[in-house]
Design a protein that fits this description.
Blueprint: E1 3-5, H1 11-22, E2 29-30, E3 33-37, E4 40-45, E5 80-82, E6 86-89, E7 101-106, E8 108-110, E9 116-120, H2 122-134, E10 147-148, E11 155-156
Antiparallel strand pairs: 1-9, 2-11, 3-4, 3-10, 4-7, 5-8, 6-7, 6-9
Length: 165
């Protein structure tokens, strides 16, 4: 799949992501988490340990979105739409960005606490749809099958920059 990165929206995030790709950090890693909640539909990748706990050994500040639309049924305006095709950083709280990111395969409702730094191409979205349709591995920690490892194992074999356009 091809990701288009938006340096204007998130310059530090794009720089870090490209650095990690060039350093082969993402090569041969597994996308470890698929969420199928009614309001959160993402595939999470970027952890070389495959556990959700790994990272590059550094963190950097958020570059939070300010232009996301409000979620339609949220009268408070605190929940925003992370639209299908969005690429954003996963984190463990404010200013903890590292290497983990998520790919949104259906509009999702989140607080605007996740740096948006790109989008997935049309063929990539078709791939995400196939991964999502496979569901998650059911375990004692994921008995209802809505948040866990994808049944269809999804690996990043090689992550490289194709240059700028």
């Amino acid at each position: 799949m091809i990701l288009s990165l938006d340096r204007a929206k998130a310059p530090c995030t794009v720089q870090s992501f490209l650095h990690l790709a060039k350093s082969r950090f993402y090569d041969f890693t597994t996308c470890h988490r698929l969420t199928l909640y009614p309001t959160l539909k993402v595939l999470q990748c970027g952890d070389p340990s495959g556990t959700g706990e790994g990272g590059p050994g550094y963190s950097y500040k958020d570059e939070l979105p300010t232009d996301l639309p409000n979620w339609p049924d949220d009268p408070t305006g605190t929940r925003k739409v992370y639209a299908r095709g969005t690429v954003a950083m996963a984190n463990a709280g404010p200013n903890t960005n590292g290497s983990q990111f998520f790919l949104v395969f259906a509009d999702s409702r989140l607080r605007p606490d996740y740096t948006v730094f790109g989008s997935v191409d049309r063929l990539g979205l078709a791939t995400l749809d196939r991964v999502a349709a496979g569901g998650t591995v059911t375990t004692p920690d994921n008995p209802d099958g809505v948040d866990g490892a994808p049944v269809r194992k999804t690996d990043i074999l090689i992550a490289r920059s194709l240059g700028t356009h």
